[in-house]
Amino acid sequence: MNHRTDHATAEHRFRALLDRSELPAPDEVAYLRDSLVFCWHESRAIVVVDLEDPLDELPEPILGGAAGDGFGGLDDGDFVATG
After folding, report:
1. By CB distance 3.0 to 4.6 Å, which of 9, 19, 37, 74 could disulfide with 78?
2. What single DSSP character describes residue 78?
3. Distance CA 75, CA 6 (A)
4. Which residues are bridge partners to 48 per DSSP?
5. What is the DSSP letter of 61?
6. What does the alpha-carbon distance between residue 65 and residue 21 come to, in Å, rounded to a whole number?
């Protein structure tokens, strides 16, 4: 599969995910060398999809911890401060 086809396939899959989730389509999509950038102007949101090292198998989603904290039961020590 060529580079441009990888991008088009990823965009199609992401748009299908948004549609199934009843989320709005992006206002703009940028094709960068190894990624896609989806932009929503009004909400000033972006999603970057890294195509450089695709996963053969998707990990299980984190849907909230035992206490329903929204972080899949992660503790403060599981986060790394940056910047």
Report:
1. 74
2. G
3. 36
4. 37
5. P
6. 21
